[in-house]
Structure formats: structure tokens, C-alpha cells
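Help! Submission page says 'invalid entity' but I think these are all valid:
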Amino acid sequence: MSKRPVSLKTLAQALNVSISTVSRALRNHPDIGPELTQRVQQLAQELHYSPNPLAMGLLKNATRIIGVIVPALVTHFFASIISGIESVAIEHGYYIVIRCSYESFEKEQECLANLLQLRVEGIIMCLSQETKTYAHFDPLLAAGTPLVFFDRVCRPAEVPTVVVDNQAAACRITRHFAAQGRRRIAHIAGPAALNISRERVAGYRQGLAAEGLDFDPQLLASCNMSATSATAATRQLLALPAPPDAIFGVNDTTAFAAMKEIRRQGLRIPADVALVGFTDEYHATVVEPALTSVMHPTFEIGRTAALLFLEQAKGPVPPRQVVLATQLVVRESSGQKP
Amino acid sequence: MSKRPVSLKTLAQALNVSISTVSRALRNHPDIGPELTQRVQQLAQELHYSPNPLAMGLLKNATRIIGVIVPALVTHFFASIISGIESVAIEHGYYIVIRCSYESFEKEQECLANLLQLRVEGIIMCLSQETKTYAHFDPLLAAGTPLVFFDRVCRPAEVPTVVVDNQAAACRITRHFAAQGRRRIAHIAGPAALNISRERVAGYRQGLAAEGLDFDPQLLASCNMSATSATAATRQLLALPAPPDAIFGVNDTTAFAAMKEIRRQGLRIPADVALVGFTDEYHATVVEPALTSVMHPTFEIGRTAALLFLEQAKGPVPPRQVVLATQLVVRESSGQKP
DNA sequence: TTTTTCTCCGCAAAGGTTTGCGCAAAGCTT
DNA sequence: AAGCTTTGCGCAAACCTTTGCGGAGAAAAA
């Protein structure tokens, strides 16, 4: 389509020397005389020569492209993580190609295959909600292709991961509720296949135990992390004979949905029901009442994942499991029980 | 680093035929006998052969990669647009590489140069806030490299663009305010270099005129679209001897900041000051009161931009200017004046 | 039987880059 | 002056793919 860009050949012909000489001159090879080196470099400047990454890729078997697969793009959480990945990638001369699995197992496999066809040097990804089997990563592992999981992970013995301290955070939330005088603390959990769901439930129960509160299965609702299913879960909780006086959602989307439903039923937050989210989407601060939430170091998660990729890309190293700390940001939605 | 993937050579050696024969067999060339064709294709299947895009790229001078530059990633608006671009790209066998200009002119140029080095087939982008000169696009135009602008645009005579009906929408907002009994309608505008800012101001003034209201320069504040500068602008407006009874922000971030500041000053929304945003970030529905805003067809903007790229990529065609319709979503924040 | 026509496949070049090796001319040593 | 080491550059292969052309063998025609 468009004209071919200037190549070594272009320069070589213009200067009446061989391609290899030009190549060497540009890399300041001692074999090339200083005068010629100078001339070559100057012409390269003038003609805005830049090495063809396709040719280099072919030669070195390295595209300098990282494939990134996220379950969703249009969320503060993933966008921010991608931003973190991008920043590290750029610093190290890598590009990132993003693909979205839309929380579908099938699409996740498609994306994976698709990116491998592109010959990405590795994959950084977050599992889809539907992903319950992990055999589709076998080929990568076998081929030694760098792979990094973040947030939702699997096969930690083989694949480096970066996650947050989900259980500790959930425990902290539960105890925070208790400290505010809440006794019937509910949790809207996510899909059980996801480590984040399981860990947060574990933290929830740990927190209950630490506060001497009994675990009531009725207070453990679950959803698929969509707003509608979270609304349904909230409705179910509020319809209980003994409804909860505190709810924490598996993420902020869930909490927002719960907030709407609670208000729709004419209940007050936090007077009647305290509420806490997870993931700290940007707008947690803007809702009324402001939402107490667990702040994820999203940008840092992205950066760390990218750094783990770089580690793997250098050579096979044992997979590291990085756990990043979260922070419970207390706002109005989890105020003292009157 | 990792082992080389299976190539035509691998297949050729395994089957003891030449590389060209394998290549032809895979593409069902009539020159190759049916029996051999069958054997080649079967082995290719078994070994999961897929053509090397680098080699193809070199040969065809086409990487099938689209470069995308956005001023920011971590917003509903841009994330959703990127999602739209990605969906079309995938459908047509393209990949997208995303770069972020962070609203900086300098970084915008870096990203551009960086993506061109990667030999992307074209660029889809949104101008940074700082971008006031447009000469850095000359090389692309000269080389015939496909280029598409969305939302914030320039050089519309030469470059295809996809924008929304900013002026009409701003006019609609202003008249909506008037219909709710507002008389002192303020606007917090964005940087004047941006078409979106100028068009929205024009719509604002058009709306005032249509309603027989005088334009008061004091009611036209401006900001750089950041929350802090929007807060300052709001403070300035509210400090006026005759403060506004309605404000519309150039986007939702601005409106959210205004909302906080208005409440901080003890004023009620919409009783004292009505408020309208622009861009309809997801959380507009979740704030209290829910924010009236102009809904952008973000996903569609992305899809359209990608389609315009495909048009250009096919061959040089005159640049089209696509204008997408927005929708004013009336919620509580712009209720009737008491 | 000889010539012609197919059928089926391989050679080689091109695209851009790096790099081991070879080779000529110049400078150096005795 | 003859042999030696440098110095400075080009050749060619490799990475992977497509494709025009040529060529060997077999089948068909004369």
C-alpha cells in the first residue's frame, strides 16, 4: 500500500557501499572507518532511518510485543492496570497488544490463540469469570513462553502472579463493620471458581470468627459481578427475616448496585445498612454517601505484572508470587451504627 | 529465547518436499497434487502451524497493526472507545497497539513516532489537550499513512474524523435548563484549543440566544478538565455577586467536581444550583442526585473510527466527517427550579 | 516411436537485518 | 625487499513467506 520506508539498502545504495557496512556503521562497529561511519550515520539521520522491527523480529525471533488479555476493558480497575503495564513496557522498548475476553472462557482461548499467532513474546492476563479449567495454558508452559497472571490467577506453582491480600482485606472489612457496632454482616461474593472470590469469603469468615460472630450461610449471597445479579443478591439479603445491618460487596460494581437497591427500598446508609466496596473505583468518592472501599494499587499491579514478565523473558526463573497490599479507605457508607 | 515455532521449513523437512510446495499446498494451489496437498494440510494441523506474521509483514509491507493514541486510558470514555476500535479491528484481522499521551503534546509526538517505528498500518487517535499545532501529522499525510481522529480533531479537510454533535448537545442542555426555570446558566468550558470546547461554548451561546437570555461573560468559566481546576472554576462561579442557578460542565469529571464543591458550600442540587455533565460516565447514575448528562455513543465512536481507518487502508479516499448523535439523559440533578 | 502437452514440483528472488568469514590493500617488522 | 599484521570492507547465510519460472517425468497425440 504505502511506500516502503527507508532501509539499510536505501542507505547503502545512496552511499555506494554494502548493506553490511551500513549496518555496522550504524552500530559503531570498529571494523568501519570513522569517516565512513560518520557519513552513514548522518545520512541515516537525514532520511529518518529506523530499523524495521519485522526484520529484526524475524531474525531474533522476538517481536517486542506483549499480549495482554483482560476480562473487560471498560472499568477503572482494568484500564488502570493496563496503564501500569503500558508504562513499564514502553520503558523497556516493548509494545502491548490488548485483547478482551469479555468474561468468556471461549473468547479467552480465542484471544490467547490469536495473540500467539501474532508471535507475542509473552502474555499478561487476568482470568475470565468463566474460566474453570486451565489446560489451555499448557502449550505456553511447554514452549517456555512467558506468562503472568494478575488478580485472578491459577497454577501459581508454575506461573508468576501478582495479587492483592484479598483475605486480609476482607477480614479487615468485616472487623471494621464489627467495630462500628454491626452484628449481622453480609457478603455478596463472586463466582467460586475465582481465587479472589474464595479468598474474600475466607477473609470474611476469618473476620467473623475473630470478632466472635457466628457465620450465617444466609448472609453469604453470591453474584456474577454484574450489576443486575448484585441487585438480585441484595434484594435477597434484605428480604431475610433478619436482614443484615452491613454488607460488603466483592467489588465496587456490586456495592454500587447494592447501594441503589438499598435506597430504593427506603433504607438509609449507613444508619440502617452499612456498605463497603472492594476495588475502589474512582467514583467511590463521588457517591452520596461516599463509599468505604478497599483501595487496590491498580497501577502498581500493572507495573508489577509487567516486571514479572520481563523477569521471565530474560530466562526461565522460578515463578514469583507477588502480593500487594491494599488499603481500607473508610468513608461515610460504613459509619457507626446509631 | 523460546524455541522457534513451526514454519513452512519444518513441514517441508518432515514431508521431504520443498518449502514452496508446502506453501502452495496450504493455499490449495492447483499445481500441487491432491494427495500431497492432503498430507501437508494434515501435518500442518497436527503441528499447529500458523503463518509467521513477521515474514508476511516483510513481504507484503503490512503489519496488520493499528496504532491507537488516547490522551488518557483510565476513563470510561476512552476505554469504551478503545473497546469499539478493538472489536472492529479483530473482525478484520487487525491488532491494535495502544499508547497514551497523558494529555501532553510532547508525549503525543513520541507516541506517534514510536508507533510509526513499529510500522503500524495507520493511526487512530484523539488529540491531547495541549496540542495546538498540527504539523507533526505532515509526514503521515505525505506518506499516505491512514490517519483517523475522533472526538478531538484537527485538519478535517485532510483527515477523516468522527465526532459528536457537540454544539447541538450544548444548545439542548442550555435550553433544558431554561425550560426548568433557570435564568443564570453557567458553563465550565475546556481548553480553547480543543474543538469540543469551542463547539460546546458555541452551543451554549446558541442556546442562550434561542431562549432570549443574555450572554454574561462572567458565567463562562474555564478549566483544563482536571478535577482541581474544575473545582476552582466552580468556586469562582459561586462567588459571583449574582451566582448561577445552573451549571453545565464540559465533561462529567468537571461536573462531579462541581457537584462536590456545590455541596461543600452547603448548596442544594438541583434546588439552588442545577447541574449537567457531558459524556455520561457510568457513575453518573450512581451519584446522589443522579447526574443529568449527555450520553455519548462511545462504543460506536470507536467502531466508526476503525471503519474509517479501514476505508483509508483500502486506498486513498476523500476524508469523511462522521457526526454521531448524542442523547440528553435527564436525571435528578437538573430538576425544576423551586 | 517420436513429439507434444500436461501434471507436479523445486529453484531463486525479494523483503530487511545481523554476523561470521574471507579478502584486499595498507602499514609494520626484520 | 619480503613477509607479517592490521585495517576496512563485502559476501553470503539465516530468519519465513510468496510467486514467477523452469524442468523432469508421464501421459497423450501424431
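Support: the input was valid. A stray whitespace character was the problem, and the output above is from the cleaned input. The first strand of chain B starts at residue 65 and ends at 70.
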